[in-house]
């Protein structure tokens, strides 16, 4: 949400408003980080034992790690918003640089605390939050310097309701897209366990892992395209927006069509990357081409949805975020196996049906708007 608005104000050369939105977003994220730290710290054992089903033997160590890790969430939140602001300003090199520094520092501290000092899981958790704290302080310091191009000052660090409201309004769509992933996983796995059994649940784990291999580059490409479109939309350079969308659509379709071809032609090869169980491989070989049957159209949905976000179309983005998973996929995954007489195949069919309907609905709305 913050990235879209900052890119638009940057393109319109409205630097004072840009600083206000950037500063208010930082304050919002730091407050949310503190809130989540308190919640996680106070309810670590409850969350791990009751909601995540952590085995009793692992619970003490898991609780120790989780408690230390959540204490440092404010640093993670601070780093994430600062990195989002840099991306919105088109400074992808600085973002990558800070990420690499954080990763290398995390590894070095892991070796020091875990291998040298023998601190176990507490050392691993401490290494993570310390590396995040250093990165957050460094990148926030960078944003307050002249090198950043916007130089956020302490006087700008205010919690402005109007500013925060607009940021949350745009950010709610990607939040729903990510948060509903758990709902989808629970629905699919519960259905597979009921109608198929453990092997079918295992097949879904493999296919979702393959899906992640496809989704990660898609997310990277859309994150790179969004600031360009938002900047040029703010600068009223609409022809550049159209050219960027056209290129994004072509690249997205190339990625998703390629993913569909791999799933359809080489399901056994992909399955063997994750398991050597012959029976499980056979299920994946049979079901993967079906499960990935509509992924080729998903590229159009992501390109259009990213463009709606980049142009600040919060309501449409929210509707599209809900459409594929909540409105279509979850109900279909519950309904189709029943309609097909308890056949587990219905759960696998739900994914391509939801993909195709959602993609064509999104494309139609995009052409109308």
Beta content:
under 5%
Overall pLDDT, averaged?
87
Helix content: over 70%
The dominant shape is: globular
How would you sum up the major sheet?
A: none
> What is the terminal separation in angstroms?
21 Å
SSE string: HHHHHHHHHHHHHHH
Poorly predicted segments: none
Number of strands: 0
Which structural class do you get from the secondary structure elements?
Answer: mainly alpha
Q: What value does the Rg take, in angstroms?
A: 22 Å
Number of helices: 15
Question: Please, could you describe this protein's structure?
Answer:
- The protein has helices at 2-11, 15-42, 44-51, 59-71, 73-88, 92-116, 120-143, 161-195, 198-234, 238-265, 267-272, 278-291, 295-310, 314-339, 345-368.
- The chain has 369 residues and is mostly helical.
- Helix 8 (161-195) runs parallel beside helix 14 (314-339) and helix 9 (198-234) packs parallel to helix 12.
- The radius of gyration is 22 Å and the shape is globular.
- The two termini are 21 Å apart.
- The model has no long low-confidence stretch (mean pLDDT 87).
